[in-house]
Design a protein that fits this description.
Helices cover 28% and strands 17% of the residues. With 264 residues, the chain is of the alpha+beta class. Among the domains are: 59 residues, Uridine Diphospho-n-acetylenolpyruvylglucosamine Reductase, domain 2 (2-Layer Sandwich), CATH 3.30.43.10; 125 residues, 2-Layer Sandwich (Uridine Diphospho-n-acetylenolpyruvylglucosamine Reductase, domain 3), CATH 3.30.465. It is globular, with a radius of gyration of 24 Å. InterPro entries: Ald_Oxase/xanthine_DH-like, FAD-bd_PCMH, FAD-bd_PCMH-like_sf, FAD-bd_PCMH_sub1, FAD-bd_PCMH_sub2, Mopterin_DH_FAD-bd.
């Protein structure tokens, strides 16, 4: 299928079609051109995602990996907090775009990994009267989508911060990375070259943090970043959500990015 030509099992029908090209239909088949470079006619032949997998219920997982690594995937915040209490030094994983690099190229050792991708409370996106609340596990591509919705529906003076973040996300990594990388993962990595962390501060964002006992505290973005790859998270604490207040009248937020490349 990737070549734009039919498979060999239909060759005899193909010859009939080609010999009478221009007729409306030949039997059940419409005449088509089998150009080497034009495969648009085969778009509808793409395999669909298996419905059995799409309908499958999510389950909590505990997997054993090479070298004694244990991988947990809880579904509820309470279960995640219990695991955090049991394993305070465990590494939380969302898109794995950072931790994978650390393990493969920097020889980092994380015997306990906890995936937060399926925790319902961390995937909340809520449009409120005073701002937008974003769960820390929300994907960057999903954030892009909700920002466009907000920009369309809210008064223009309220969405200055949202527009700046949306514009910056256009040049943030590639689409494949944005489809898996999470908002909270990018924040907690505290990279000095992060595109978004300066914008969270400029937008007066607030971070909700929950500890292993369920207590929640709120920290302003400008106070959350303590230094090079250091953030205001105590052992056992988790970034729960990010809150962006609507911009006020005569308040403007604008993003700029200096880069050697258009993407990445």
């Amino acid at each position: 299928p990737s070549s734009g030509k039919p498979c060999s099992c239909g060759e005899h029908k193909v010859h009939n079609c080609e010999s009478s090209f221009g007729a409306a239909t030949i039997g059940e088949h419409k005449p088509v051109s089998y150009s080497e470079i034009d495969v648009r006619l085969y778009n509808e032949k793409e395999l669909i995602f298996p419905p059995e997998l799409a309908l499958r219920n999510d389950l909590p997982l505990k997997l054993y990996g090479y070298g004694g690594i244990i991988w947990y995937r809880p579904l509820k915040l309470s279960a995640l907090l219990d695991l955090r209490s049991l394993y305070p030094n465990a590494k939380l994983v969302a898109g794995n775009t950072e931790i994978g690099i650390e393990m493969n190229f920097k020889n980092a050792q994380y015997p306990i990994l906890i995936s937060v991708t399926h925790v319902h409370e961390l995937n909340v996106l809520s449009i409120k009267e005073n701002g937008l609340e974003i769960g820390s596990s929300v994907r960057l591509s999903k954030l892009q989508h909700i920002l466009l919705k907000v920009i369309t529906e809210r008064d223009i003076h309220e969405t200055s911060s949202c527009r700046a973040i949306s514009e910056q996300l256009k040049w943030f990594a590639g689409k494949q990375v944005k489809n898996v990388a999470s908002v909270g993962g990018n924040i907690c990595t505290a990279s000095p070259i992060s595109d978004l962390n300066p914008l969270w501060m400029a937008a007066r964002a607030e971070f909700k943090i929950v500890d292993s006992k369920g207590y929640i505290r709120t920290v302003c973005a400008k106070d959350f970043f303590l230094g090079y790859r250091k953030v205001d998270l105590a052992q056992g604490e988790i970034l729960l959500s990010i809150f962006i207040p609507w911009s006020r009248r005569c308040e403007f937020v604008k993003e700029f990015k200096q880069s050697h490349r258009r993407e990445d």
